[in-house]
Amino acid sequence: MICHCATGSDAAAISCEDVKHSAKPCLDYARGNGDEKTVPPKCCNGMRTLSDKAKTAEDKEVACKCLKKIFKTPMLNLVESRLNVIPQNCRVNVPFKLSKNLQCKEYVN
């Protein structure tokens, strides 16, 4: 039996690996591949999963910091305007604006 025990409010229920897994299907779209107006369904599903998992302030902070790290990766060459429209086009509520310059403290406190 495995116990994922958390004590106090410091333990987030979401990990950076969860965030990477959820965001991965969005990366091709965010690089500028495919139709600009059509976010791939797998990307939207990943964003929904991420939104569903990130319920607490700690979860949102972990998600934001991990996304920021992913989005700032120079070799990905992500298109800012594509990142910005993912939540709206997927109809997913994300507590922060998707951007290469995420300001996590501004949105999760």
From TrEMBL:
InterPro entries named in the record: Bifun_inhib/LTP/seed_sf, Bifunc_inhib/LTP/seed_store, Plant_nsLTP
Residue stretches spanning the membrane: none
One example GO MF annotation: lipid binding
Keyword Transport: yes
Keywords linked to the UniProt accession: Disulfide bond, Lipid-binding, Transport
A Pfam family that the UniProt record links to this protein: Tryp_alpha_amyl
All copies of domain Bifunctional inhibitor/plant lipid transfer protein/seed storage helical, residue ranges: 16-104
GO BP, one annotated term: lipid transport
Known function: Plant non-specific lipid-transfer proteins transfer phospholipids as well as galactolipids across membranes. May play a role in wax or cutin deposition in the cell walls of expanding epidermal cells and certain secretory tissues.
Membership in a protein family: Belongs to the plant LTP family.
Protein name: Non-specific lipid-transfer protein
Species for this entry: Linum tenue
